[in-house]
Amino acid sequence: MQRAAAQVLETTEITPGVFVTWYDAPELAANAAPGQFVMVDPGWESGAFDPLLPRAFSYYRFRNVEGGGGGERQFALLYAVVGRVTEAMAAQRPGDALWMTGPLGRGFEVQRHARSLLLVGGGVGVAPLVALADQQVRRGRAVALCFGARSAGGVFPADLLPPEVEYYVSTEDGSQGHQGLVTELFAQHLSWADQSFACGPVPMFRSMASAVRADGLRRPVQILMETEMACGVGICYGCAVFTKRGVKLCCKDGPRFDLLDVYGRA
Predict the structure, then answer these.
(1) What CATH number labels 2-104?
(2) Please, is 154 exposed, middle or buried when counting C-beta atoms within 10 Å of its C-beta (0-12, 13-18, 19+)?
(3) Is residue 37 within 8 Å of 58, Cβ to Cβ?
(4) What pLDDT is recorded for position 67?
(5) Quick check: bond before 16 cis, omega within 30?
(6) CB contact set of 167 (below 8 Å; sequence gap of 6+)
(7) pLDDT for residue 69 is more than 80
(8) Cβ-contact 162, 135 below 8 angstroms
(9) Which of 256, 207, 231, 244 is nearest to 109 (CA)?
(10) Is the bond into 42 cis (omega within 30 degrees of 0)?
């Protein structure tokens, strides 16, 4: 874990109000893995303590570039503009810097025997799933992604995924793909997967747990919890998660958890 100034390289709006920003900060990218996150400082270096608390963002993508002393790893964050911090992030220009701490948390863990991976998410929850898809496609595994949105305007663009990924879309209004919830797609494809991974809200996890119990085989599903974090390093105890193994901290013990450890009760 390190704290560093991440220099903005480029920012792109991929869907209305949703942005991707690439950063150059070798200290934050070198050992980061899909499912881990950074804490973004709102502006402490400038003496501005409003907003006071940092914000957590999952790593969305990594890329290697050639530099004078060899290869260098850069990273991207995916975020929706919903408040002052994300407004400031979207407004930054190439060359600007943003202080961050990372990599933090426990990332996804793919079982050695797993060959077919099913990913489930919606909105900006897709961020760590894209990082995982990039990694596992390179390692030769079959990857399918189920993405849910309210309407077609919020669907993650298919051309931003590796071409090897099987992509399934659901929209609540039926304007694209399957009409309904992404958890319905998950239930349809669960039997195909050796292992599943998800990032999203609590209702989605509860529905997924019901589908896993109905399947009967209790197939392994890892989830990334989206609990709000005040510190990101296990000091404030503000991100408690109740599991079958007792109370855990999302930032330190997670954000990766086994689905049925958290939502195993009927």
Answers:
(1) 2.40.30.10
(2) buried
(3) yes
(4) 64
(5) no
(6) 144, 145, 147, 158, 161
(7) no
(8) no
(9) 256
(10) no
Count, in order, helices (H) and strands (E) of the chain.
6, 15
**Residue 137 near residue 115, CB atoms below 8 Å:** no
User: What are the distances in angstroms from CA 175 to CA 80, 125, 178, 180?
Assistant: 21, 20, 9, 10
Amino acid at the residue 221: V
Q: What is the mean pLDDT of residues 18-47?
A: 89
CATH 3.40.50.80 is right for the domain spanning 116-220:
yes
Whether 43 contacts 88, CB under 8 Å? yes
pTM of this prediction?
A: 0.94
Q: Tokens standing for 24? A: 């150059």
Percent of the chain with pLDDT over 70: 94
> CA of 60: how far to CAs of 75, 126, 156, 214, in Å?
7, 8, 13, 32
Q: How many CA atoms lie within 13 A of 167 on its CB side?
A: 21
More confident residue, 238 or 38: 38
Q: Give 175-186 as a DSSP string.
A: SSSEES-HHHHH
For 135, 160, 206, 255, 261, the CA distances from 248, given in Å and listed in that order, are: 28, 34, 18, 10, 11
Q: What is the pLDDT of residues 210-237, one digit of tens each?
A: 999 998 888 899 999 988 888 888 888 8
- What are the domain boundaries of the chain? 2-104, 116-220
Paired tokens of 103: 């990599």
